[in-house]
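Good day; I would like, with your permission, to put a structural problem before you. I would ask you to consider whether the tokens describe a fold that such a sequence might reasonably adopt. The full record is reproduced below for your convenience:
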Amino acid sequence: MHTLPTEIRSKGRTLSPEDFYMDRGLFVFTAAYHVKRGHCCGCKCRHCPYEPQYRPGSTCLRGTPASTEASHSADSPAPSGV
């Protein structure tokens, strides 16, 4: 069994263990890595944290107030302030 180094260099960046894991011999980048990257790459990553998902250049993180407002369509009723 191979052991992974504690850091890996990719495209000029140093990847730490919290940035990726291995699945069937492939690197899988975590949401933490994508947040550090700063934008969506559009490659349909498993842990894409951006809204809208899989749209290259998206920078709004899912679950933030700006992304929640954007996800409400004009057809859906506004939440009541009750």
